[in-house]
Amino acid sequence: MAVYTEVSDGELSAFIADYDLGTLLSFRGIAEGVENTNYIVHTDQAQFILTLYEKRVDPDDLPFFLALLDHLKGTGLAVPAPVQDRSGEALRTLSGRPAALFTFLEGLWVRRPKVQHCSALGRALAEFHLKSEGFALERKNALSVESWATLAKDCGAGADDLEAGLSVALTEESAELGKLWPDGLPKGVIHADLFPDNVFFIGDEISGFIDFYFACTDAFAYDLAICLNAWCFEPDHDFNVTKGRALLAGYESVRPLSEAERDALPLLARGSAFRFLLTRLYDWVNTPEGALVKPKDPTEYLKKHRFHKAVGRISEYGL
Q1: Which residues of 249-267 are buried (b: 16+ CB within 10 A; e: fewer)?
Q2: Comparing 1-5, 58-62, 63-67, 132-136, which segment has the lowest mean pLDDT?
Q3: Neighbour-count burial of 307, counting CB atoms closer than 10 A to its CB (0-12 exposed, 13-18 middle, 19+ buried)
Q4: In 23-53, which positions are buried (b, 16+ CB within 10 angstroms) versus exposed (e)?
Q5: Residue 44: strand, helix, or coil
Q6: Structure confidence at residue 2 as a pLDDT band (50, 70, 90)
Q7: Inter-axis angle of helices 62-74 and 115-132, to 10 degrees?
Q8: Nearest Cα to 149, choosing from 166, 165, 173, 180?
Q9: Total-model pTM
Q10: Going by DSSP bridges, is the β-strand pair 24-29/92-94 parallel, antiparallel, or unpaired?
Q11: pLDDT at 145
């Protein structure tokens, strides 16, 4: 369930009337997603996505996100573009929430990515990184290595309910990663949350990226490491080296990795798994019973993190 804020027919009709988009015909909530409220909106001209930003999104970050999507759309990358009203504003207020309309992207996300999907993702991710380089704004990664010790502490003794001794292990790992974390890698704007449900396909070809609300300025190879974790493990949490090879080779066919990025990739993959372990564990510990959103199981990323700790070089990912 991802409709946290209900919008009435009258409110939305008045909202749409401020755009040159025709007459509102219908709208419905989108159940997928966990951060914001989303609706599909149909007018007599086209269909759009309406997003209402909920409390977990900092309103001060919204100009960055909207400007980034405008920039990427201008480069030809398939992303949902913000729609401006008659006064030239893309960010407005609806039902007491910051809100924006976006162009609609056709396609479906794949529940079980195959090798060809991983290859296409690698190419598209590299294209995104290259096209983001001309974007002037920056946004710090609020969930990078500097935040992990605090997140581990905030999980508290609840971590031990998942596994005995885990709270101490998390504290030790956050300290070790803080000492080892690489600096000086090529960087720019990264997506930072490019899970399969944020990538649309038509057949085996990518039709677009969505959900840029963790986008930030960080190492390009860290974004690639996040995708290794999200796309290249099987449901039993075993790493699929064929998928890993396809993802990395697809990426390098567009943007070859530097030697420093290649050397750092196992550590980056370990760190990205640790980041999602911590945020999932935090939600698992702190989400009250009866909440609208069921927290994701942190065990998945605990297993992935342990896999990466045993990896010594990029060749073990298939490249």
Answers
A1: ebbbeebebeeebbebbbb
A2: 1-5
A3: middle
A4: ebeebebeeebebbbbbebbbeeeebbbbbb
A5: coil
A6: low
A7: 100
A8: 173
A9: 0.94
A10: unpaired
A11: 97
